[in-house]
Batch of 4 targets.
Target 1
Amino acid sequence: MEYAPPKSITHPRDKQQTHKFDRLNLYLRRQASSFARYCLEQLVLCAFGWIPTVVGIALRALVYRVILRMDGIAAIENNVRIRYADHIRLGHNVYLDESVYLHAMPAGIEIGDNTYVMHHAELHVFNFRDLPHAHIQIGKNCLISEFNVLRGQGGITIGDNVYTSPFVQMVAVNHVYADTEQPIMAQGITAEGIVIQDNVWIGAGAIILDGVCVGKGAVIAAGAVVTKDVAPYTIVAGVPAKCVKEITGEKRIPSGLPVYMGGG
């Protein structure tokens, strides 16, 4: 009779410790591109991220070059939360207001020259499913207003001179839900991407869904839910959004209303 060595027995406590280690490792992989980068980025953010006023802005304009890419001077207010900083690129004269959240995992966030991202806006790539086109790219002279949410799993590309009002959402991802026997979370996602062409104005509370292209010079009315492509130089409104008017250039100034232009 052959001798069979006893099977090794894993103690439940060992399994629990392994599970905790795996969860910690997963957390760290979703915060930075490596453990060394996590330590560096968190050290810089903790040391300089809280400092208020122009003193903090000046220090961050110098020190944050260690962790992210800046083409020129960028003004970064205090309490801006940054993850995967080495995948973020800021153009000349970019402004990040207080409590902005940038998560660039892993394909990156690029913000063009003279673009402002206002307080509590969230630019969130956070691609942990190996999606091929996950990124957020914003052009020059844009304004991303307060409490905007941009989820770039399918890719979000925004042109130049785009203005978003508060509480706008761009969601470049969608859930599969057809199987009634499986939880929706277990059925996967689709991610086609969103394109916003140049000179678009998006009204307050509008939602742009995955797979949509908004044409040049279009206007999205407040509260609209955009599920299909928007033709250039049109105004869309409603749920779902439909074209309500074309912009022809014939009537340049609203009748009887004063128009105020930007100053220096």
Note: The chain is about 15% helix and 25% strand.
Target 2
Amino acid sequence: MKPMQSLLTECCRVAEEAAMAGGRVLLAHRYEPLEIAHKERQEVVTNVDRLADEAICGILTRHFPDHSIISEESGVSQTTSPYTWIVDPLDGTESYIRGQNFSGVTIALACEGHTLLGIVYHPFQDELYTTIWNEETTLNGRPLRVSGVAALEQARLIIDYSPRDALRQYLQEVEWNRGIKQMFRFGGSIALNMCLVAKGAVDGYVYGRMRNRVKSWDIAAAALLVRGAGGQALDRQGQPLDTLQPQGFVLCCNAQLDLYRLLGSEILSLPTP
């Protein structure tokens, strides 16, 4: 086994351990009163976000003390290492607060602008999604594949958009005029919505919130999981999603559906707030 492969295998093992430790924190506190504070853009944070962050980053730091960490909750811990862990200890905080149980833990490892591995853990379903760059995605150790639906009239899509953005009206018109079989409006964890594409539970996911751009800790792990399952994660220009930069538009789907082309080039002309 090559040194890089050996390192990634060890990193993946530790990341799975860390993700499950964070998930146990989410489960342990779900029925308890929460301490809730507000951040920017109407976002919220709870004491559980911070407790899960401590559990996750503690494990990562213990095993890889020379690696950098970027966490949504604890910020940046910078080292000279080329390796950086990207952590969201509770993706879907609003869902967690409301007891909807569509929240999870996301962990990615990046090096020199490339995401090398991705882990998403859904503790309420005990689902552990794992992938390493250029390898297949697994769910609890079993290989995953996206769906094979190619026709828009047979597609089931998840959409997540701001009511104040022009994308909302456009997607409603697409749904009506182009005969999409079914569209769901889901909130909660962005990463878990993307994982539903990876496992073929839905055929596509569209995120459009130009005022509330998703960050690397929301999408880095999940985009790699979608790709490892044979799907694609694209930006507003139809290009591979740069998950290390904030994004106001995310499109995930299986390769057969080619959802970007089916939605039309009008996406490019929509006003950006």
Note: The mean pLDDT is 88.
Target 3
Amino acid sequence: MDFKIFRKIIRLKIALLALLLPLIFSGCSFFNKHEMAKTTPEGLYSRASVEFNDGHYKKAQEYFLRLKEEFPLHDLAILAEVGIADSLYSDKEYAEAENAYNDFISLHPVNENIPYAIYQLGMCHYNQIGAIDRDQTETIKAKNAWERLIARYPESKFSTMAEKLIRECKQKLAEQEFYVGKFYLRQQKYQAALSRFEKVARDYANVGLDYKIEYYINETKAKIAEEEKIKLKKEAEKKKEEEAKLKKEAEKKQKEELKLKKEAEKKKKEEELKLKKEAEKKKKEEEKLKKAAEKKKKEEEKKKTENKINN
């Protein structure tokens, strides 16, 4: 039998016995459960307890609800609220059970059963915890409920029971972080993996993963260092390639500038030579014209002289 259900059954049996003993001694009909269920708070509670112990949780819930609605001012009406929550919980209707325990805690903040209700609140979440590769919100909620229980009621027996379960929750959360860390490690996302491993070491010490985590942290740091070394080497090679490229481009530019300079000098010389030739040609033409003019002048003077002689 499941320990949690067993504990609740014992609790209800004790409560039932405490209620029925006075009735036995006062002459009430102990065996006529049907009549009691119809007429008295004790009868309804008795019937609900029987149904609960027999595993008929929905039927038990009906009797607890009748007790609460028909006798709201009776002391057993408060216990019926716990019975409703327990019936839902035992029937694995955890979300509805959570609401019922929360309602009880809100309505009866100083009741002696508050530690039990808070403990059960944590159990509602605990029973919905999934595998380590799934969301662990329920694990966190269970842990938070039990930490709240221990903080408020450190002397309660339920706080003692919660301590072990808190450790289980921490172990579950640590295993999930470790699982994600190993996933990142396989994907070679070393910084993300290290962050997960260091979180386990920081937040979940002494839950059974310490030596394993220490190994993975060192291994991941070594991978990061190796990756950084390769990165720096690649950056150095890239820088060297860029410098070589720039040098090559500078040499190419220098050659182009030298080529342009030579072409400019050649063009200048060609222009100068051309101008010199043109000047020499012009000079020759001018000399030729001068000679022609001198010749013409001489001829004119000669002709003039001949004309004088003839006259």
Note: Confidence is low (pLDDT under 50) at residues 1-33.
Target 4
Amino acid sequence: MGGGDAMTSRQLLVRDLLVLFGITGWALALPYWGSEFIVSLALTCLMYVALSSSWALFCGFTRYLSLATSAFFGIGAYTSALLLERLGWVQAVALGAGIAMAVALVMGAAVLHLRGTYFAVLTFGMTELIRHAITYFEKSVTGTVGRVLTVVPERDTIYLTVLVLAMGAVALSIVVRRTRFGLALAGIGADEQRAQTLGVNTRWIKLAGFMMTAGFAGAMGAAMSVRWTYIDPHTVFNPFIGFQTVLIALIGGALTLWGPLIAAIVFSLLAETLRLQAPQIYMMTLGLLLILCVLYLPGGLASLRWETFRAWWDATRGWWKARRYEWSGDKARDKERARRQRYVL
């Protein structure tokens, strides 16, 4: 029995790695045959793959709802904008990740003892605090708000970096799910006090997971900042980046491996088709998908199976049959007949 389980686990690992290699190979070929629009769409998609996959790796397992993604993204973007002229491309991206992780260490030490609404509100509040602090610093010290990016790498360099970060986030998720660290994160999400009694150092596990999420967000912010010729706090610390990351992870399936990737592709296509032409419809679509997933698909899009559609079909048929029985008057007649029988008896 143990050998069969080990083989099954190994087969799942091989399958996940093959899927990852296939997606990576297809994405690598995209810049050579795709137009500028297709590459731009792929960059947005890969950005949210990295952000949502790394967010789900910590928040999905531990059930800590972090709204600080935009803070780490903005820190990485500003790091790249300030230092790219003096450092190389790889060094700027790595430093953006490192500074974001350092901020996450401080932020996590302050708020990770909280849970639920308190944790979510405080992480969002700290994000706004960082954004306003940088705005105030720029107005007071530099006399202007924002940075003009004069050094911009080639398109293929940016694309390859973003692809490595996105596929790295998915690969890390594959690995962490099979380690004691991943088991500790899942234990914290299931019952944190029980995990402590079993010897799990929950404080450091949570800090490590939070910093891991921040590192990917910071690196992605540093890599994506060069897509704009001008950045300011309102652009790179935009709360919408954090909110959409959370929505993508939840709708795709925060506890699944491929859910965030699937949802990132769906939402990137929706964003390009609806966001510019009908932004209100785009936001309504986000909200509607979230409501439908919470009510009818709690496991996210990645949990869809043929049995799911069959269960929905059976439930719909049962509902329609009950409505026909009621609307035809048969239900009222049967109730009246039963009442008369009780009266006679």
Note: The first strand starts at residue 147 and ends at 148.
